[in-house]
Amino acid sequence: MITVEKLENLGCNTAEGLERCLNDESFYLSLVPGAFEKKRYEELEGLIKKADLKAAFDEAHALKGVLSNLAITPLFDCISEITERLRAGDQGDYTALLSRMWEVYSEFEKIL
Question: Which of 34, 62, 36 is nearest to 47 (CA)?
């Protein structure tokens, strides 16, 4: 079961996320699982691997917004870096960033 304390232990700024949800903890916690829809992360990785940078940017940017609103800081930081590289049209190697994304994602997956 996901809790504010578990999110905080993973580095989330839950006070900020809760503030955006009018300090309604149950509402906030009901939104958190939506930030971890695995299909979206898999799609982002697939788009990057296909070098479809425009579509990958759109997906990364959308994920970044969700993670930002919920203040899921560790994953937000990873996705932000990916987003900015995609925004710049960087066609370089994303392997390390994607590995880090999955590493952080897996830590959250344990508490979902």
Answer: 62
